[in-house]
Amino acid sequence: MKQIILSLAVIITLSFNLKAQEIKNDKLIKDNILLVDQADTTAKKVKADTTVVRLGKKDVKVIDHDGGTEIIWGKRKNKDWKDKSDKFDGHWEGIEFGFNSFAKPDYSMYTSANKDFMSLNQGKSLEFNFNFYELNIGLSKNYIGLVSGMGLSFNNYRFENDFTLEKGSNRTEPIALDPNNLEKTKLVVSYLNVPLLLECQIPVNQHEGRLFLSAGVVGGVKIGSHTKVKYGNNKEKDRSGFNINSFNYAATARIGYKDIALFAKYSLTPFFADGKGPELTPFTIGISFTD
């Protein structure tokens, strides 16, 4: 009988000790953090090494851990980063896509047979801009400032009718093409651009982003031009210059949110030199993605 009573006492004592140990262990866990009692337990702590490299408005994170090396590229997560900066940060650097057209075309210096020889296929007359440098000058804290920089512009003018261009002795002349098996005929003109824009930024959505508006002028220097005619696998290019103005000045306006904007550009100079071609005023409407 004494042996049975002694056994029960030992079991009860062990049960209380186990319960006390569970309570103690529960206190070691708080806010999803495991606190290890070094007197009772030895644990191996694994910590990942993180290196952050900042490139403009983006972060590159390199994380080394047991699973290997992880590289994360993206914009900074701090939504107030831009608003907390005292430096004005405008919108120019990035890429743009647009549709080209001509306003107020006048072919009166040509015969009626060649009328509208530069009429465009609007859906395929595209502009691509690569704005690779940006300069900002703040005027009022970080909300109003001047934006300048440099960029490259590549303009495609896809002709709707069966014509190409030739630089004549006195003016640019239309050349009629055989429509059979004609795949495309177009003019390509590229410019080196320098803008001067006045930009205003308005914080919205509890400072998560900014609505911005800008307007100004873009000056361009022609760095190349050529026509391209394609019949099946045969391609012909002519780089004669075609009396296109060497300099171009255009008024522009932009409205956007964060890093995306709509833009319009209207040329203040004629496409061709005076008296050297039809009177055409280029304009472009498109979308921009700034860095």
What features would you describe in this structure?
Strand 7 (126-140) and strand 8 form a beta hairpin. By secondary structure, the chain is mostly beta strands. The protein has 2 helices and 16 strands. 10% of the residues lie in helices and 56% in strands. It has 3 domains: 2-34; 46-77, no CATH class; 81-290. Strands 6-7-8-11-12-14-15-16 form an 8-stranded antiparallel β-barrel. The chain has a 3-stranded antiparallel sheet with strand order 3-4-5, with no helix packed on it. The longest helix is centred in the first third of the chain and has 26 residues, at 2-27. It starts with a helix and ends with a strand. The chain has helices at residues 2-27, 81-84; strands at residues 29-30, 33-34, 49-55, 58-65, 68-75, 94-106, 126-140, 144-158, 163-167, 172-176, 182-204, 209-231, 234-238, 247-257, 260-267, 279-290.
Structure described in brief:
Helix content is 10%, strand content 56%. It is built from 2 helices and 16 strands.
- Which strand order spans the largest sheet, edge to edge or round the barrel? 6-7-8-11-12-14-15-16
- How many helices? The count is 2
Q: What structural category do the secondary elements indicate?
A: mainly beta
Beta-strand percent range: over 45%
Largest sheet: 8 strands, antiparallel, barrel
Separation of termini? 87 Å
Whole-number tally of structural domains: 3
* Cα-atom radius of gyration: 34 Å
In total, the number of strands is 16
